[in-house]
Q: What sequence folds into this?
């Protein structure tokens, strides 16, 4: 055992189970702990005035350097000499922590990249934005003042039903999609999922002593089945022509058409960069999507649309904002305007994605193929299909061509799509 150093900590073997320690030879009781997940944390072991052995976590290795942790350990040992008991103080602090305080801790640390999410990577900005919305709109207003230790499953399930009933519904902020941030089963279930996740992170980092949301039963949301039928797709195409003549934003119009022709998520379309498109091989390489990096097939109709878009201010995006260097954000508003012209109701960007998959299903393509088209399949499987299986190339080409013909009024055969 020698002086604790970065080199020594990096070389510390990860145990198969339990925990392993490496202690400093110069500062008694100061060390680092490693657990099977690979997480390493600085710890301090000491005896309080009653002679009881206590151990506290100072902080995570990587967040704190060895010297920063050593200084904190010295300060805490000095407090122990003066009669303090840091472990007891921390226990009392954890016992009194509220949901609001845990939410603030989660948002602050997740934004700093200090909390690991899926596949042991920092939580994505898009995921964090949705978490923040649920926290600020539903979780904190309903149970933010409650102490975590006193919270019960029944309390959280009541929160869920309050969200379903619309008790946290409110007007959306200016610049949003308009209307109200409403409730409903889907919204309520996702709010509970966010609460379960952030409390799980807080428990792992020793911020709370328990996760009262762990056993909550989430209410099932209604499956989203809305899709455009052939007549509605034609109507949307006619509305695009009218809107173009009336001066509707061309970027928004092109983005709506791209959503229909690709079946991609709205975030994927507006965030797509020109270097990601491999037109000669018929695919788009997304470095990072909702389900991690993916290679996704794309038909010629969509490729021609993308290649026809003019570059703006030298930006790499296909759909940049007109005024700032970021993706265009007005697609929902453009879609609402088009639907108003066409007399179509209940259409969101996700409905366009669902329409693409539904057209593929009506054309006889298998569920596995449709999942690959939409990016629902495993990453490896999707890549293999794009690079090897010509059936997937044929599928995306036929589906995008079918939708393009309907938009342009060239499709004579009525698709048997549900209204």
A:
């Amino acid at each position: 055992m020698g002086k604790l150093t970065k080199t020594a900590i990096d070389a510390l073997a990860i145990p198969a189970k339990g925990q392993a320690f490496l202690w400093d030879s110069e500062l008694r009781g100061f060390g680092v702990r490693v657990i099977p997940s690979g997480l390493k944390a600085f710890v301090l072991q000491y005896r309080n005035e009653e002679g009881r052995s206590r151990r506290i976590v100072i902080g995570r290795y990587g967040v704190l350097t060895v010297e920063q942790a050593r200084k904190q350990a010295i300060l805490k040992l000095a407090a122990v000499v003066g009669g303090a008991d840091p472990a007891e103080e921390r226990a009392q602090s954890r016992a009194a922590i509220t949901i609001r305080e845990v939410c603030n801790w989660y948002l602050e640390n997740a934004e700093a990249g200090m909390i690991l999410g899926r596949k042991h990577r920092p939580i994505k900005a898009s995921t964090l934005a949705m978490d923040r919305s649920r926290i600020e709109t539903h979780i904190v207003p309903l149970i933010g003042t409650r102490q975590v230790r006193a919270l019960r499953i029944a309390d959280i399930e009541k929160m869920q039903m309050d969200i379903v009933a619309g008790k946290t519904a409110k007007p959306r902020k200016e610049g949003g999609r308009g209307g109200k941030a409403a409730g409903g089963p889907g919204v309520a279930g996702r709010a509970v999922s966010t609460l379960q996740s952030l409390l799980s992170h807080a428990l792992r980092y020793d911020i709370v002593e328990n996760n009262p949301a762990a056993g909550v039963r989430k209410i099932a949301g209604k499956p989203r089945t809305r899709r455009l039928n052939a007549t509605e797709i034609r109507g949307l195409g006619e509305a695009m022509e009218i809107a173009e003549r009336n001066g509707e934003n061309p970027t928004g119009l092109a983005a709506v058409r791209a959503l229909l022709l690709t079946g991609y998520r709205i975030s994927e379309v507006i965030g797509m960069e020109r270097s990601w498109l491999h037109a000669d091989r018929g695919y788009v390489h997304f470095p990072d999507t909702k389900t991690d990096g993916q290679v996704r097939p794309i038909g010629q109709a969509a490729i021609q649309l993308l290649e026809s878009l003019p570059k703006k201010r030298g930006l790499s995006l296909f759909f940049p904002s007109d005024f700032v260097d970021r993706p265009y954000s007005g697609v929902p508003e453009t879609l609402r305007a088009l639907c108003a012209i066409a007399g179509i109701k209940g259409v969101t960007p996700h409905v366009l994605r669902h329409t693409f998959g539904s057209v593929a299903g009506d054309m006889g393509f298998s569920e596995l193929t449709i999942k690959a088209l939409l990016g629902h399949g495993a990453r490896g499987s999707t890549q293999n299909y794009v690079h090897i299986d010509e059936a997937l190339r044929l599928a995306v080409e036929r589906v995008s061509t079918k939708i393009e013909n309907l938009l342009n009024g060239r499709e004579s055969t009525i698709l048997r799509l549900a209204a």
The radius of gyration is 27 Å. The domain at 6-86 is CATH 3.30.160.390 (Double Stranded RNA Binding Domain).
